[in-house]
Amino acid sequence: MGTFGKPDNIVIEGGRITIVEEAKMWSKRDFKDLADLAKIDRDQFIKEGLPPKTDKRQRRYIQFMKHKKAVEYLLENLGKFPDARKYGITRADSEVVYMLKVPKWAPDEELKLMRTVFEEELNIKVEIRKIEWGGKRNG
Question: pTM for this one?
């Protein structure tokens, strides 16, 4: 597929690990299409997202499953990663939160559906953060 599962940011504070993923979608239509996929095929929504329409690099996909696997591996193998302690990851039972950053104009109903699917299927806590961002508010 060509995606690496690297989060856009990781924030470690007070024993809590926040994995930050930016939803790189350019229109409300992208959010709607991805939410529609979550309704009809949760597995494809989580593992692959929507295939690109034109540019192969522009898959519409939120990589929380890949991030979860990486974080679980890290927490289960802290002894193999001495630098983890330096960055504040000291306990295998650290709280982990997955934050999805989206444009302020992203549709709430679709975001709620996607969050629910991630939380139910991956058993993770997802927070949505709306920010000022480019893209198309319509179409």
Answer: 0.85
CA distance 7 to 24: 12
What span, in angstroms and rounded, lies between the C-alpha atoms of 139 and 135?
A: 10
Three-state DSSP state, 43: helix
Q: What pLDDT score does 93 carry?
A: 87
What are the boundaries of each domain within the chain?
9-131
Confidence band, pLDDT 50/70/90 cuts, at residue 1: very low
Phi, psi of 40 (to 5 degrees): -95, -25
| Mean of the per-residue pLDDT values of the chain | 87
Rounded to whole angstroms, the Cα distance separating 123 from 139 reads 32
